[in-house]
Amino acid sequence: MSRRWLIVSALLGWCLFAEQTVAVALDQVKASARRPGLMQRYDDMSEMEGSKELERLCAEKVAMTIPLIAVPIADLAVGQITLHTEAGYYTVLLPVTLPQSKMKTLYWGADTLDEVMTFVQLLQDGRLLAVKAEAYSFEFRAEEGKRLTSADLRSCGRDQVKDLLEFCKECLIVEWVFKGRN
């Protein structure tokens, strides 16, 4: 008996939802028919969002081609390591004592607490010589006056785009550099 009620209530809920969706769609059509400029604004917003996505993709492509920056362990505040946990994922935060560019913090993500402990142990034991991090974020500088045209974004040349990228303040560690045998 309860199974039938469940099926009936689900069907009723779906019918109500479908009716509201159709009513909302009809209201939007009527509103756009009364205000012809409304559809143009939606088209303009869609075009603007498309150019923002093109900017993001170009910035990401160029940032990925720029060599990583090596930060010696001596330039890191190894005694001030913090660990951020969220949804079962761990992020190790390392403050930079001698900033390179605008870098203030380096971070490294781990899936398990064992990975975190291994990384911290390698840092504190002095087995790492340096870490390599991405120096640029995947965004263009907001204060930059020069904007790229659509053609520039489509070609996305490294030389013309690199100078417009934003330096990261919190940079992702991508590689560990171990000390060699002396």
Cα-atom radius of gyration: 26 Å
Number of strands: 8
The percent range for helix content is 40-55%
Shape label: flat
Task: Label this structure with key terms.
25% strand; single chain; 182 residues; 2 domains; flat; alpha+beta; six-stranded mixed β-sheet; two-stranded antiparallel sheet; 5 helices
Notes on the structure:
The chain is α+β, with helices and mostly antiparallel strands and 182 residues long. The chain has 2 domains: 33 residues; 131 residues, no CATH class. The protein has 5 helices and 8 strands. Strands 1-5-8-4-3-2 form a 6-stranded mixed β-sheet, with helices on one face. It has a two-stranded antiparallel ribbon with strand order 6-7. A hairpin with a 2-residue loop joins β2 and β3. About 15% of the residues have low confidence.
Brief summary:
The protein is α+β, with helices and mostly antiparallel strands. 47% of the residues lie in helices and 25% in strands.
List the topology elements.
Layout: H1 2-34, H2 36-65, E1 69-72, E2 82-86, E3 89-95, E4 105-110, H3 113-124, E5 128-133, E6 136-140, H4 150-155, H5 158-162, E7 165-167, E8 170-178
Parallel strand pairs: 4-8
Antiparallel strand pairs: 1-5, 2-3, 3-4, 5-8, 6-7
Helix pairs in contact: 1-2
